[in-house]
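Show me a record, fold above all:
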Amino acid sequence: MLERDTFLDQAEALLGPRGLSRDAEVMAPWLVDWRGRYTGQAVALASPASTTEVAELVKLCAAHGVPIVPQGGNSGMCGGATPDDSGAAILLSLRRMDAISTLDAEAGMAVCGAGVILQNLHEAADNAGMRFPLTLGGKGSATIGGLISTNAGGTQVLRHGTMRAQVLGIEAVLPDGGIYDSLAPLKKDNRGFDLKQLLIGSEGTLGIVTAATLRLLPAVAGRAVLWAGVESLHHARQLLLRAQTSAGDALEGFEVMPRHSLEAVLAHLPDARDPLGETHPWYALIELIGTKATAGNLTDLAEKFLAEALESELLQDATIAANESQAEQLWLLRDSISPAERALGPAMQHDISVPVEKMPDFVEMATPVIEAQFPGTRAIAFGHLGDGNVHFHVLAPPQATPGEWEEEDGKAISAAVHDLVTEWGGSISAEHGIGQMKRDELGRLGDPVALAIMRSVKQALDPRGLMNPGKLVPLAPEGATA
């Protein structure tokens, strides 16, 4: 019997018929990334039901030298959960580990399995009068394990921070099969390195997140959602500063999009409509929230803020959602940008950040530079202006051939964008991670000292390189020892 067959038989005996599949049709949807940029192969799809099963499977993989590619909702943007095409790796799905074992409203925390879908956590928290303060467009498929592994951001980072700020404790299986249990939500703990922070954002290259303790906040008692048309991104930035001054802690989110993005969404969603009567170059989506004590004043606060902004010529027109249905419709316009854009054809997507105060200048500079350097393309920027992170996408010319364009002009475009971002002191990955898409670019542009530390940590914890190989950690230069 071949060694691979021996491994698979042992894995099947460990996980049972529900826990291991060799069926090509069952595996196929999970071997392609969300954007359709990467397609891989796997020896099998493993779906353990417990941390113990994950640990035993990891030990088995280590004994047979089988690489492991962990996967949550397969909604990542950088190919970080897609195996290579060798067919040597096992695809490890955490989707069966979807229990919320504890939800303590009084303590303000929940303990979740890695496979819990974000939207399900939102609903469970809401039923308990609480909320989990992180959301994003893919909340219906993104899992807690994947969000932790990529240190996801979303639309509430302005007030609450990234996923890193929401994690109070973590459980993970390490490359040797050992279980790291740090689920206890200690506010003060000085027993050396904070290892959970090392695992957050490591994209499965140092261990497999199996559970987490997450912070919850009291449910929002009321909200006001505003949609404003503005003349430029500079005006949007000034509008943000005014909102921070006027609304203070009530300011929950501040998103921007250009007219092009709105038109794409309106064409993509059959029932969508333009919130304002006239067209505007840019739009700002603003959310104010209130507690039980302040919710009654939200409408007055929103109206006063908009009146002052209009008088100061920071906006051209605006509307306030009259009810929750209208508020959700406004957010749907923002959350639908990526699928609407994907329907237009090929594009190179860049998840970038620069210092917050520099973002309007950066976008105004980079847009014409890239469009001139690559004729026929269209550069657009949208996203989280308040935390200095926008999605800078470059749409292909109409005649571009999907697949070919990304591999040819697309790579040159990304390199040019990343060069500009680096020159401005920014990051080529603000919230989507590195995966396989940006690994070589991180190696080209990253700080050599930081990269050496990353390689050393990887070597120390995963010396055989079996944990999500080919992702995140750039290869060492020729002749280097790490």
